[in-house]
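[SOLVED] Need 3D model of a two-part complex

Original post:
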Amino acid sequence: MATAFTPEQSKVSKQVQRMRVYAVFFLAAFGATIFTLTEENDIFLHALDDYVLIALSVIALVIFAMKHKDEALGSLKRTNNILMILAVIELLAVLFAFSQEINDPSDFGNDPGQLFLALALIVNRFV
Amino acid sequence: LEAQASGSLSPEQRAEIRQRGRRRAFMFVYVLTAVVFFIIIFSESGTFSHMLDDMVDVAVAAISVVVFAVTWRSTTPRAIARANRIATVVAALIILATVYAAAVEYGNAMDFGDDLPTMVLAVVALLNGVL
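Solution:
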């Protein structure tokens, strides 16, 4: 039988679900970027976006660790807005990486995946 | 009722929100997987064995997305949990396909490039199904 939710609880449920998506994607981004960083480390400008992505992922995961028990709607919304801003910064870092790595196929390989990941995180805020 | 009146969540509601959260995360991961690997198929070196893992990834991710689409209106925690179990099995299949790909593509730096990030994403998806 379906569990009944009040309108307020439904909103809390949506925000908690959004936060889980952020946590899953930032954790995946952190793990994946650790591997690609070693390949691109020879040129600083090629590795810069990976450093930014790792830093953003660590910040996001720390925020998630502090707030994952939260059930207050206002606080959850604020947390998710912060996480979306981190996703926007990630998108800007990936666009910068596109401009630097477009002529280097081996370094460029991970950037389209990161672009889709950043877009998915931004979409997560609005659907 | 008391919990609902105060705005706080009951244990049953928390359990259902967790299942819905898992489903949403799976949905995002598999839509992303299907789109990205569909593009990657065409960028692999043209060797069928190098493209096979990407085709498997697209196929199983698409199956999972279809399962979620069909059961999206299900509101019972049991139905959502069943769909999540299927998605967890799909994550395990993607891990197996990636292990196969890593063995086949190891000597080709260009084709091998996507395998480690894929493995990480699949392991995180698997963790999403069990945590």
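Edit: Chain B touches chain A at residues 4, 7-10, 12-13, 16-17, 20-22, 24-25, 28-29, 31-32, 35-36, 39, 75-77, 109-110, 113-114, 116-117, 120-121, 123-125, 127-128 (CB under 8 Å).
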